[in-house]
Amino acid sequence: MNSSLTLLAGPDALRLIRERGLRADDIDILPGASGGPKWLVLAGLDRVLFGEFLKSRSRPLHLIGSSIGSWRLACLALKDPVAALERFAEAYVEQRYPPKPSTALVSTTSQGILDALLGAGGEEQILNHPWARLHVITTRCRGLTASEQRQAQLLGLTLGALGNLVSRRTLGLHMERVIFHSAGDTSPFTGLADLPSVHLPLSRENLRPALLASGSIPLVLSGVRIPGAGAGIYRDGGVLDYHLDLEFGPGEGLVLYPHFYPYVVPGWFDKSLPWRRAGPTNFRRALLISPSPELVARLPNGKIPDRDDFVRMPDTERLRAWRQVMAESERMGDEFRELLARGKLAERIQPLRGS
To answer: How many CB atoms lie within 10 A of CB 272?
Structure first.
């Protein structure tokens, strides 16, 4: 049977789902990965998760994302998440740039996309949501990585990448993780110790800058200064936490992880390191939902969108391809809805590799 979903679960998640199915109130955490245009392949699944499955929740749900993942999750923390997703998708797909655009132009365009996503009153809706607790991961840069001079920044990133070959912990020499969140004292992530980490409350003043910083790709967008936060330049949270290989904190609730891939890459510098993949330790209670190989084969050029599409395709072709990806992504949402309705989800889940 052709399927649009790949469903992988750690042992604790698999046991719980086999015992009583997947229930919205059993979920504690929902992560969102970096990946730029890759998020478009999840648009249909997000619509069903955000607009239907999670709608009836009553207890807190911790949303944690970096870069485009934090923007997706900001949609869920708004009063009408499906409308927010639609605004976000439309503004995102319609990006257009000349060859070799300046960082200022890309930053201004990104600000417009974020404005469309949040709409009127978005900050208040997120900060006062009855159960969504948004965590926005940013990277505060040190030394050369904080420079807005391209060659100096590139040198700083190169030094970071070289150290990362030895150990991810060396990234702490160049950067620190700063998480802005609306969870108060209930955040499950305050114990993170793998890299230098700071936790700050989201506020009306810093919410937009934090989201913008979380998606500010080095060398592509300008760095961001965030009011009320520590001095310095903030950039893309995905530099340190690309796919969020995190300790998800105490508790027995599930981690529901809609993701582009059936595997997790810890940091931005690990993308080209096939041996640097997340192990099973942090994903014992996680359900990873990703597009199946069959769905990916149906996409334009047989691949999930990425930032290279801006270079590979003229705008008309890219817009057509990205809209087709979103249309195909509806299959993921439809199949998830059907599996839940028929009580067949547990039958389709496979053990997460290495778990």
So the answer is: 8
Q: Are 68 and 35 in contact (CB under 8 A)?
A: yes
Tokens coding 351: 């053990």
pLDDT at 353 over 90: no
Residue 210 to residue 82: CA distance in whole angstroms: 22
**Is residue 241 predicted with pLDDT exceeding 90?**
yes
Q: How far is CA 108 from CA 39, 115, 190, 315, 322, in A?
A: 21, 11, 33, 19, 22
- Between CA 64 and CA 278, with CA 174 as vertex, the angle to 5 degrees is 45
Token pair for 92: 């995102």
pLDDT digits (tens, 9 = 90+) for 56-77: 888 999 999 999 999 999 999 9
Residue 255 near residue 13 (C-beta atoms within 8 A): yes
The span from the CA of 321 to the CA of 309, in Å, is 9
Backbone angles phi, psi at 130, to 5 degrees: -65, -30
Are 229 and 19 a contacting pair, CB within 8 Å? Answer: no
Assigned token pair, 81: 């998440």
Q: Answer for the pair 226, 208: CB distance below 8 angstroms, yes or no.
A: no
Q: Tokens 């993701």 label which residue? A: 259
Beta strands, E only, the chain: 5-9, 27-32, 61-66, 132-141, 175-181, 197-201, 233-236, 254-258, 286-291, 350-351
Residues of 246-256 as b/e, b for ≥16 C-beta within 10 angstroms? bebbeeebbbb
Beta-bridge partners for 254: 27
Model pTM? 0.96
